[in-house]
Amino acid sequence: MVGTAWEVAATVVDPEIPVLTIEDLGVLRDVREADGRVTVDLTPTYSGCPAIDAMRDDVRTALEGAGYRHVEVRMVLSPAWTTDWMTADGKRRLHEYGITPPNGAAPHAGERITLRMAVKCPRCDSLDTREVARFGSTSCKALYECNACLEPFDFFKVL
Questions:
Q1: CA–CA dist 149, 52 (Å, integer)
Q2: CB distance 129 to 117 below 8 Å
Q3: Comparing C-alpha atoms, which of 49, 60, 39 is closest to residue 15?
Q4: Phi and psi at residue 77, to the nearest 5°
Q5: What is the pLDDT of residues 41-99, one digit of tens each?
Q6: CA-to-CA distance for 20 and 156, rounded, in angstroms?
Q7: Is-contact 47 15, C-beta < 8 A?
Q8: Is residue 40 within 8 Å of 73, Cβ to Cβ?
């Protein structure tokens, strides 16, 4: 075996945002090794995420390539994924890639957020931005435009 099962699974990249691993994204929730079997739990960013099938297949391929023969990858929907699970390194990589990372903590059940947050441009760091579309290239991102440098950019929503 090459590395622990967690270490191997943690190298799998998000098929939609290739600068993030599934560990950076917080989608990799648990990896258990017992009796020659590996069970991996993934929590998608939202229940209809089209990338989760690719992630499941990529995790299985990575583990089998590392010598693990009995691999089960499970989708776990509860508790629901939150941007709080993203690593600080993952958020930094998002910014470097040109996607504004989520800022602040996700609201807890029953809480309402009524303040509009400023979204910083990942290119020029201006807070003078505007939301163009609530849903961007994927449902977990919104499309913004910077009024200072006039560049469009994705904002990874706080969930």
A1: 34
A2: no
A3: 49
A4: -100, -10
A5: 999 988 778 889 999 999 999 999 999 999 999 999 999 999 999 999 999 999 999 99
A6: 13
A7: no
A8: yes
Q: Cα–Cα distance between 68 and 133 in angstroms, integer?
A: 43
Structure tokens at 62: 């990575």
| Amino acid sitting at position 117 | M
Query: Could you tell me the strand order of the sheet in which 99-100 lies?
Result: 99-100, 152-156, 141-146, 129-133
Please tell me the distance from the alpha carbon of residue 72 to that of residue 31, in angstroms, as a whole number: 10
Q: What does the alpha-carbon distance between residue 17 and residue 87 come to, in Å, rounded to a whole number?
A: 14
What is d(CA 12, CA 111) in angstroms, rounded to the nearest whole number?
A: 34
Helix, strand or coil, per DSSP, at residue 14: coil
Q: How far apart are CA 133 and CA 42, in angstroms?
A: 28
Distances (CA, A) of 10 to 45, 123, 141, 145: 16, 28, 23, 33
Laid out side by side, the sheet with 37-42 consists of: 28-34, 37-42, 70-75
| pTM (2 d.p.) | 0.72
Tallying the residues shown for the chain, one arrives at 159
